[in-house]
Design goal:
single chain, 181 residues, 28% helix, alpha+beta, globular, 5 helices, binds coenzyme A, three-stranded antiparallel sheet, four-stranded antiparallel sheet, 7 strands, Aminopeptidase
Length: 181
């Protein structure tokens, strides 16, 4: 597998963004399968546009040159600490793409933005694959929000938050959270 990233052009790529997000299921997101109209509204609102948000296509060259298999968005990047939204198309999940993509995207964003000191991501407690992906890419669990994730028609679930420090990314270290202090 050879992963590459390319910046999303929210105008030229609008149809492909709508297709990816409306034809796949995202069981751990609040909107599990958004409609085409909902995604179009997100595109128009600037959810995939700079300078606040930076979106990248995830491409797997082993399938075909420039073949798009997912999307990673760094949201609110201008606020100082971007928040990750990583989505692999259903047909391509579970074969290492998420892990490889988060590693590559983290490096890409730290290199492109020397002002960033950390990158964050959160997910639902039972999103085992995403939690494995965070850990594999050097992210550390920093928070556990009990009943912090609303689920429509059901009791809320816990949420967990992870982050990576630029210093850990640079040095290949894992700085633990000083829980005892
Ligand atoms: C979460 C997601 C990005 C992970 O990417 P992926 O390419 O499917 O995951 P990978 O193949 O890289 O696997 C990473 C790890 O998760 C494990 N894993 C994969 N699918 C799993 C599943 N359904 N249940 C439990 N573990 C799973 C793998 O075994 C691997 O574990 P390892 O590190 O011990 O080897 C992807 O499944 C996805 O897009 N899901 C829907 C969107 C989503 O929930 N995004 C998270 C929001 S930030």
């Amino acid at each position: 597998m050879t992963i590459t990233l390319s910046r999303v052009d929210p105008v030229a790529d609008a149809a492909e963004l709508i297709a990816l997000l409306s034809t796949n299921r995202f069981p751990f997101h609040s909107s599990v399968q958004p409609t085409r109209e909902e995604v179009a509204r997100r595109v128009a609102r600037g959810d995939f546009s700079g300078p606040a948000n930076e979106a990248y296509w995830i491409q797997d060259a082993s399938i075909g040159e420039g073949h798009r298999v997912g999307l990673i968005v760094f949201e609110e990047i201008t606020d100082g600490t971007p928040l990750i939204d990583l989505r692999i198309a259903e047909a391509h999940r579970g074969r290492g793409l998420g892990r490889a993509a988060l590693r590559l995207a983290t490096a890409t964003v730290f290199r492109a933005h020397p002002e960033l000191n950390r990158i964050e991501g959160n997910t639902r407690i039972d999103n085992a694959a995403m939690r494995r992906v965070f850990t594999a890419a050097g992210y550390v669990k920093e928070a556990h929000y009990r009943e912090g994730w609303p689920v429509a028609g059901k009791p809320p679930l816990d949420a967990v938050a992870y982050a990576i420090l630029r210093s850990d990314w640079t040095e290949g270290t894992i700085t633990p959270v000083p829980w005892a202090t």
